[in-house]
Structure to design on (150 residues):
């Protein structure tokens, strides 16, 4: 496995550098857009920052904003294209436990179709269980306090 900080062996840095092939859709000073080589569905696109950033926590907020604005434009473009999707997922895997497998931050724009068979797996015995208000209030209080510090 490639080390998270190993830019020299990062596939997305190689694409940015022009040493790996890409079917380029868009680029500017900070971001790049191209189709995913291993799509969930045809029309699956990636938006990446050109700078090697492993996690979303290290991403410049202005670049994150540019990426989200681009995601909205790509959502529109995919719907107008021949892919004729019925929905779109915007997906970020930030960290190995969240499913990140390429450690150069990237945002997925994924065309979706009814019955396409893709989705999160979950366990009804432990996920989507209604929380007690007091527990939610405790979580809100803690996160609010941290937000004031960062
Ligand atoms: Zn990289």
């Amino acid at each position: 496995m490639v080390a998270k900080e190993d830019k020299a062996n990062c596939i997305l840095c190689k694409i940015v550098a022009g040493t790996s092939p890409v079917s380029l859709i868009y680029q500017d000073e900070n971001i790049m857009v191209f189709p995913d080589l291993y799509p969930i569905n045809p029309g699956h696109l990636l938006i990446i920052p050109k700078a090697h950033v492993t996690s979303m926590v290290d991403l410049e907020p202005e670049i994150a904003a540019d990426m989200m604005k681009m995601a909205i434009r790509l959502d529109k473009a995919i719907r107008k294209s021949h892919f004729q999707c019925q929905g779109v997922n915007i997906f970020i895997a930030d960290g190995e436990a969240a499913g990140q497998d390429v450690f150069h931050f990237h945002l997925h724009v994924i065309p979706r179709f009814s019955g396409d068979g893709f989705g999160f797996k979950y366990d009804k015995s432990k996920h989507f269980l209604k929380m007690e208000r007091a527990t939610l209030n405790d979580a809100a209080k803690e996160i609010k306090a941290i937000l004031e510090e960062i």
Observations:
- The two ends are 32 Å apart (CA to CA).
